[in-house]
Predict the structure.
Amino acid sequence: MKNRFVFFDSTPADHRYFSHHLSNYGAELVFHKEPLSEQNIQLAENANVISVHVASKISHSVLHALPHLQFIAARTTGYDNIDVEAAKKAHIVVSNVPRYGENTVAEYTFMLLLALSRKILPSIEQSKSGKIDHTILTGFDLSGKTLGVIGTGSIGQHVIRIANGFSMPVVAYDPFPNKNLENDYNLRYVSLQELFGSADIITLHAPYTGENKHLVNSQAFASMKKGAILINTSRGELVDTKALVAVLASGKLGGAGLDVVEGENLLLLDEESELLHRKNLRGFNYAVEQMMLEKMPNVIITPHNAFNSKEAIERINSTTLENISNFFKQMPTNTV
Ligand code: NAI
């Protein structure tokens, strides 16, 4: 039987790239715009290889329903949307793209921060409407503010470099500190508790592991400085959204820039009508929390878009191609 490679979350650019570069594999190539989930497993029927982005949810049941599956090529760095343990048990190899966008996501982190610190959205609104009132557009300088970086891996390190360029001292927390960074940058490793209490701006660059769910919770918010800003380009599950809504509503937190929100897979709402029929109320709660955040003037939410630069997509697709090719050479790369 012909090999079947099925791509989910795919764009026309992905389609063009992989159709061209995988043409010599003699495989049937199938591209779906939508994510893979338990609700549409039939789209992956008979697949030997599937390739997914963050919106796809590869649970134990999905894996169980795909007996021919040998390889999952995640076109992402994070892979918390894939049940890797279940894949291992089923002898399915999983690869990711560990490096493609460290500068890309770090630049986006500062885009969110600057948009908040200089009130870009209300500034644009005022310009468009012609009703100008500078008094409500007063922002604050980044220079001299302390940045708290949680997770000092590839992306965190680029964030630290950029922060020092803005003359921001950095405090950082990572369970595996890279002490060399303290020599290279204006940076000090501290405990998580000290970071929460001393940073003016806190930015998250740790993977979501399940164990660190709600790393930023109501106690963390309580220990933060008044007016602190939270930036999350990592994973929504690291932040207790309910606590975030409360601390923003109370005026204690100065603002939040969120490229990722808790339950965002649920919130990809072609599923809206489906949510109505679900018993799981958590989906509703996430949707309500996000609606409340969207209404707050000091909150910016973007749709998990930090990875999305032309250059990063080229790097994602070329590494994914290598991962698929090396899997078939029986030398899998970037396995997780
Ligand atoms: P990385 O693996 O290079 O670095 C992660 C760092 O976090 C490591 O140093 C690790 O020791 C540390 N870490 C692990 N658990 C931690 C914890 N509980 N507290 C603090 N630090 C912890 O990963 P990279 O490339 O820097 O990416 C980080 C995350 O960014 C990814 O896991 C992914 O979730 C997210 N991401 C988001 C994108 C977006 O489009 N919004 C795009 C790419 C990545």
Q: What stands out?
A: The first helix runs from residue 12 to 21.
